């Protein structure tokens, strides 16, 4: 089976940023990159289509420009272009069935806010059976790394360490898929994995310190088999009382990637992604990986 990462391109700055992030991730995985652009035939071209182009010609040009930018930046990467007919959400969900990872661009809400999750992005996030990463416009390779000394760019000094990978962990219902994705992501980057667990205010007789200690033990027990499987990954844990979304957003400041899960079993039909994941997508600025699980 050919390993590949898929990203959707539509000519926007955010989709180009996502394509470059996907290219770097494909290189980290030793995989190919597939660029997908969806277009629909209309009696009259959309206002964005130049007067001297048909809709199909403009779609081909968007795809060619994105591919040219990726190949220029990553000459050793295998890039495959796919122009498909149909709606963007349907095309991406179909393409994602056989991929390792799907990457989408998303417009930021502001300098310290997260993602503008539009109807297409929300449908893809909620419907994808494969892990998906959302990337903001303006994201760069330098943003994934700690600052280099003397103003040297991380692209010039590849050994500049990656920023932490952050994982949101629910010890009541721990699921393998998000945990493994986070450990693998940290391993590929040589980054520290920062595991965040938050719990609500207790209502029973157990005191705060006792409950905190119990939750800390549960986190260590949950992570133990994964630490043994990935002995080279440095892991730090943060356990606190409060809302999970608030703890994750705080930990994400300065991270290279945040990993959250999306439960698929028992969900009602429709584009639902879960309260914590929804909050993270709207308040975190770095790339966010949403990993589906039962």
Overall description:
The chain is an alpha/beta fold and 294 residues long. The protein folds into two domains: 4-139, 3-Layer(aba) Sandwich (Rossmann fold), CATH 3.40.50; 146-293, Rossmann fold (3-Layer(aba) Sandwich), CATH 3.40.50.12370. It contains eight helices and eleven strands. It has helices at 13-29, 55-73, 88-96, 119-127, 176-189, 208-229, 244-252, 275-283, and strands at residues 4-8, 32-39, 79-85, 101-108, 115-116, 132-136, 165-168, 193-199, 235-241, 257-263, 288-293. Strands 1, 2, 3, 4, 5, 6, 7, 8, 9, 10 and 11 form an eleven-stranded mixed beta sheet that branches. α5 links the parallel β7 (165-168) and β8. The two termini are 24 Å apart.
Q: Calculate the mean pLDDT score and round it.
A: 85
- Taking all Cα atoms into account, the compactness measure Rg is 20 Å
| Strand portion | 15-25%
- The secondary structure category is alpha/beta
Largest sheet: 11 strands, mixed
Please describe the structure with a list of short key phrases separated by commas or semicolons.
294 residues; 11-stranded mixed sheet; 2 domains; alpha/beta; Rossmann fold; single chain; 37% helix; elongated; 11 strands; 22% strand
Short description, anyone?
Helices cover about 35% and strands about 20% of the residues. It is of the alpha/beta class and about 290 residues long.
Task: Describe the protein's topology.
Blueprint: E1 4-8, H1 13-29, E2 32-39, H2 55-73, E3 79-85, H3 88-96, E4 101-108, E5 115-116, H4 119-127, E6 132-136, E7 165-168, H5 176-189, E8 193-199, H6 208-229, E9 235-241, H7 244-252, E10 257-263, H8 275-283, E11 288-293
Parallel strand pairs: 1-2, 1-4, 2-3, 4-6, 7-8, 7-10, 8-9, 10-11
Antiparallel strand pairs: 4-5, 6-11
């Amino acid at each position: 089976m050919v390993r590949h990462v898929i990203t959707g391109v539509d000519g926007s700055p955010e989709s180009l940023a996502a394509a470059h992030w996907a290219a770097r991730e494909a290189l980290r995985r030793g995989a190919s990159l597939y660029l997908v652009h969806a277009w629909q035939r209309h009696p009259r071209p959309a206002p964005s289509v130049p007067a001297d182009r048909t809709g199909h010609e403009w779609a081909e040009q968007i795809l060619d420009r994105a591919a040219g930018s990726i190949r220029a930046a990553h000459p050793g990467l295998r890039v495959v272009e796919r122009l498909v007919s149909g709606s963007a959400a349907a095309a991406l969900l179909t393409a994602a069935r056989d991929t390792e990872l799907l990457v989408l661009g998303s417009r930021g809400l502001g300098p310290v806010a997260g993602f503008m999750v539009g109807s297409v992005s929300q449908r893809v996030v909620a419907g994808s059976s494969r892990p998906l990463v959302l990337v903001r416009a303006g994201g760069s390779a330098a943003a994934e790394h700690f600052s280099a000394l003397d103003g040297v760019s991380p692209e010039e000094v590849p050994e500049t360490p990656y920023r932490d990978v952050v994982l949101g962990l629910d010890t009541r219902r721990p699921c393998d898929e998000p945990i493994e994705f986070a450990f693998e992501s940290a391993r590929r980057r040589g980054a520290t994995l920062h595991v965040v667990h938050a719990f609500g205010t207790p209502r029973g007789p157990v005191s705060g310190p006792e409950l905190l200690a119990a939750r800390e033990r549960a986190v260590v027990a949950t992570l133990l088999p994964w630490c043994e499987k990935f002995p080279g990954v440095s892991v730090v844990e943060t356990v606190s009382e409060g809302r999970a979304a608030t703890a994750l957003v705080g930990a994400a400041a300065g991270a290279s990637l945040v990993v959250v899960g999306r439960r698929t079993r028992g969900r009602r039909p429709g584009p639902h992604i879960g309260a914590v994941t929804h909050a993270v997508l709207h308040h975190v600025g770095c790339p966010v990986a949403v990993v589906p699980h039962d």
